[in-house]
């Protein structure tokens, strides 16, 4: 617990330094911020838009917007980037509503899994892709971006209790869809 | 009597507490699902996105620096222009330049050059008032 608090504090300090450098239009700071947070932003975008090209566009827009000289106002860089990605991805999804979406899988089975586990992972992958967007993004933010419910609530602009409920519903649904397999192992 | 009531309340609390077996079993199942989710591979953005982003950022920063360098000159020019405009309009309103510009009574009117010439010639004529 203490180690995670220290790690969070160190990450916070690193992000504060990055924000200072970004405010001075330092492009190397943008590269550092990208290396630190791009994967999380990309995963969240992909969970909403469902297409790799669109998720990459959102990712690029979000990071490019950092070099506008107004970065000094940012207090929590990770939460800011994820919130920006959420907003852009949602508006992109609204614009694209009429088109037929081409879904790219959000997750895939690990390469080194046992053959008997593969079916379970595939079922989980399909189940995750079938979740509603608001539940899927909470799962991604909680499990793959390791945010707390409080932080997630700021990203998706919903109350912490709502976010916790979405997470619980999503886990319940996944558990139901993948059946007893997950629980017997 | 009072202690019995407290005991009863405590027993009820114990039944509803998260330490009962059902809750633990449910939690274990949820934990297992979370564990499986964590085991899945998640994609990362292509390396080309980083390169493209940095090229675009370099361009944007260069443009922003250029803009910032020209900003004081633009501001100075704007102030000079406004001062001149203000001076000119003041003069026109006072009547000195009204004929030249056609600015009269808050409106601009085109006055052909020959009319201006006639007006100036009339102004040059000696007065018969005395």
Protein traits:
heterodimer, A: 185 residues, mainly alpha, globular, disordered C terminus, B: 130 residues, two-stranded antiparallel ribbon, 5 helices, elongated
Question: How would you concisely characterize the structure shown here?
Answer:
The complex is a heterodimer of chains A (185) and B (130). Chain A is an all-alpha fold.
Task: Give the SSE map.
The complex is a heterodimer of chains A (185) and B (130).
Chain A: H1 2-23, H2 27-49, H3 52-64, H4 77-95, H5 115-130, H6 133-144, H7 149-156, H8 160-177, H9 181-184
Helix pairs in contact in A: 1-2, 2-3, 2-4, 2-6, 3-4, 4-7, 6-8, 7-8
Chain B: H1 2-16, H2 21-39, H3 47-94, H4 98-101, E1 103-104, E2 107-108, H5 113-124
Antiparallel strand pairs in B: 1-2
Characterization of the model:
- The complex is a heterodimer of chains A (185) and B (130).
- Chain A is an all-alpha fold.
- Helix content of chain A is 73%, strand content 0%.
- Chain A has helices at residues 2-23, 27-49, 52-64, 77-95, 115-130, 133-144, 149-156, 160-177, 181-184.
- Mean pLDDT of chain A is 83; it is low at 181-185.
- Chain B has 130 residues and is mainly alpha-helical.
- Chain B contains five helices and two strands; from the N terminus they run ααααββα.
- Chain B has helices spanning 2-16, 21-39, 47-94, 98-101, 113-124, and strands at residues 103-104, 107-108.
- A two-stranded antiparallel ribbon of chain B has the order 1-2.
- The radius of gyration of chain B is 43 Å and the shape is elongated.
- The A-B interface holds A 25, 27, 30-31, 34, 38-39, 42-43, 46, 52, 55-56, 59-60, 63-64, 67-69, 104, 106-111, 113, 120-121, 124-125, 128, 139, 143-144, 168, 171-172, 174-175, 178, 182-183, 185 and B 28-30, 32-34, 36-46, 49-50, 52-54, 56-58, 60-61, 64-65.
């Amino acid at each position: 617990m203490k180690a995670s608090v220290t790690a969070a504090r160190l990450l916070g300090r690193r992000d504060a330094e990055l924000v200072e450098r970004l405010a001075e239009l330092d492009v190397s700071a943008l590269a550092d911020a990208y290396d630190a947070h791009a994967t999380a932003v990309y995963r969240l975008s992909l969970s909403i838009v469902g297409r790799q090209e669109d998720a990459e566009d959102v990712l690029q827009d979000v990071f490019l917007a950092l070099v506008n000289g107004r970065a000094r106002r940012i207090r929590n860089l990770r939460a800011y980037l994820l919130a920006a990605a959420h907003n852009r991805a949602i508006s992109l999804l609204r614009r694209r509503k009429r088109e037929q979406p081409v879904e790219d899988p959000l997750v895939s089975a690990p390469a080194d899994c046992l053959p008997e586990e593969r079916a379970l992972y595939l079922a989980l992958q399909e189940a995750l892709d079938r979740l509603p967007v608001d539940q899927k993004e909470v799962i991604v933010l909680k499990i793959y971006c390791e945010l707390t419910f409080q932080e997630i609530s700021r990203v998706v602009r919903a109350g912490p209790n709502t976010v916790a409920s979405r997470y619980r519903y999503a886990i319940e649904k996944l558990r139901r869809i993948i059946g007893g397999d997950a629980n017997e192992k | 009597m009072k202690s019995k009531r407290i005991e009863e309340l405590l027993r009820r609390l114990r039944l509803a507490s998260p330490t009962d077996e059902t809750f633990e079993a449910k939690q274990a199942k949820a934990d297992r699902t979370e564990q499986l989710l964590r085991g899945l591979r998640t994609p990362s953005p292509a390396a080309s996105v980083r390169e493209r982003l940095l090229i675009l950022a370099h361009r944007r920063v260069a443009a922003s620096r250029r803009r910032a360098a020209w900003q004081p000159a633009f501001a100075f020019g704007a102030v000079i222009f406004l001062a001149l405009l203000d001076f000119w309009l003041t003069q026109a309103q006072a009547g000195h330049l009204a004929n030249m510009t056609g600015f009269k009574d808050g409106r601009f009117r085109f006055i052909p050059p020959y009319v201006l010439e006639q007006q100036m010639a009339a102004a040059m004529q000696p007065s018969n008032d005395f």
